[in-house]
Amino acid sequence: MPSSSLPVELVSFDNTYARCLDGFYVSCSPDPATKPALLRWNYSLAEELGLDVRAIEPSRLAAIFSGTELPLGAQPLAQAYAGHQFGGFNPQLGDGRALLLGEVIDRNGRRRDIAFKGSGPTSFSRGGDGKAAVGPVLREFLIGEAMHALGIPTTRALAAVATGERVRRERSLPGAVLTRVAASHIRVGTFQFFAARGDDEKVRKLADYVIERHEPQLLGRSDRYLALLRAVVERQADLLAQWMLVGFIHGVMNTDNMAVSGETIDYGPCAFMEAYSPATVFSSIDVHGRYAYGRQPQIAGWNLTRLAETFLPLIDAESTDRAVAEATAVLEEYPRLYEAAWLSRVRTKLGLATPHADDAALAKDWLTLLDRNEVDFTLAWRRLAGTVAGDSQPLEQLFKSSPDLTPWLERLRRRIEQEGRPIADAATSMRRVNPVYIPRNHLVEVALAAASDDGDLAPFDGLLDAVKQPYDERPGLEHFAAPAAASYTACYKTYCGT
Ligand code: AMP
Ligand code: MG
């Protein structure tokens, strides 16, 4: 903190995690940055949080959001958590390069965490420098904003600040700190940390805290822990359906990267699928395809089972058998909940307003067509709107050759007509849910390389602008809608960037 000035009162912090959950974290200060400079600031999110930054110089904002100067009321802490990483259990992970600053109540009355990523080592960083590089920080900023604009629950970036320091990865890279805003940072792995130590009381305390924070309607119910499990299962089922329907591949769905709030969290080696193929994997470390696009719903179910295991003593303290039976009954609902969420959302993508028994088959046959013809997932959905409105040529161009496409399109048209709605209405509603702009992998890489290597944020800004209004086709932005060459995508790899 500059000695001449008092701490800035940015916002009124109300830090329940620090106050109520002693023993769940370690207090820790961020490293000051040598030469903090604001890379990007999220004005609309700041507004939503009620942050008053008008009177604050950009240089001071950079000092605050690099961890160099703490705002009044912040109580930085590193949260403890464990996690299954690629199926293997690690009993101690924790925030090794992140710090929770505190919580604020936003303008909509929702409690939000404000946290740093890349602000230096903590007592949980066993190895690693606790830092982050400009590229991965901007990737998280960009993908989080894209997901938010697509209507998908996600943590979001408030700020990206360059530290002026170099971080050592495979090569030396410019460092940065991300400020992340989340409904909370409680993960499946947070429960696992205490369950693995046999500390049932802490598991209970955490579950009570989560109920109060995320599911207050369950307070006082005798079956509240089972109901909490069900609520988390429901949120994840819907989240996964949303990921699948935009072609999002998280890349590292470890249990420490799954938030109980139902928000998408931890954008590392994530990517968007181009040509539809359930086996798509981009992450360099996912050698066996555990987290392939098509396996994500199933993996979420696996992670939820790990969560349920930690809940057993809370569900029934007397009888493990009874607890297992009750938890199993909830977990068994997950595939059905996922299918229901997926079907209801896929219907809107198909321009349908009412359910019909054949809809799942109609949707699945469409995906089979995309798979067989290696068609770009995003463009195919988008052009389907034009097709139902009468112009099928742009869609047909995406198909290598498809004798089955025409009869399938006929089926869809008949189905839409059955609803008695004007076809133009269906096309309009399809354009509202089928994005034209997603963060295309090749464009993300160009934007991050320009920012990291040359300090040029123009490509990043252009792409961010496109993906922030994903449904509005705008002249001049055609290249943001175009897939990469298939040869590029075939070799594309993403990295953790840690
Ligand atoms: P992630 O791959 O970001 O989900 O992180 C997995 C675990 O590794 C977490 O406990 C992180 O805090 C830790 N970690 C990741 N990167 C670093 C780093 N650069 N320094 C210290 N710990 C890290
Ligand atoms: Mg993580």
Mean pLDDT: 96
- What form results from the Cα inertia axes? globular
Our estimate of the beta-strand percent is 5-15%
Question: Ligands bound here?
Answer: adenosine monophosphate, magnesium ion
Order of helices and strands: HEEHHEEEEEEHEEHHHEEHHHHHHHHHHH
Count all strands and give the number.
12
Uncertain ranges: none
What's the helix count? 18
Helix content: 40-55%
Largest beta-sheet characterization: 6 strands, antiparallel
Structural class by secondary-structure content: alpha+beta
The rounded distance between the terminal residues' Cα atoms is 28 Å
C-alpha-based Rg, rounded: 23 Å
Question: What can you see in these coordinates?
Answer:
This protein has helices at 16-20, 43-49, 58-64, 134-149, 188-196, 200-214, 224-246, 296-315, 320-349, 359-373, 377-388, 393-396, 405-418, 423-433, 441-454, 458-468, 478-481, 486-491, and strands at 25-27, 37-41, 77-79, 83-85, 88-90, 98-105, 111-117, 132-133, 156-168, 172-182, 248-249, 271-272. With 498 residues, the chain is an alpha+beta fold. Strands 2, 6, 7, 8, 9 and 10 form a six-stranded antiparallel β-sheet that branches. Strands 1-3 form a two-stranded antiparallel ribbon. Helix 5 runs antiparallel to helix 6 (200-214) and helix 8 runs antiparallel to helix 9 (320-349). The model has no long low-confidence stretch (mean pLDDT 96). Bound molecules: adenosine monophosphate and magnesium ion. Magnesium ion binds next to loops. Residues 93-97, 125, 128-131, 256-257, 266, 268, 496, 498 line the site of adenosine monophosphate.
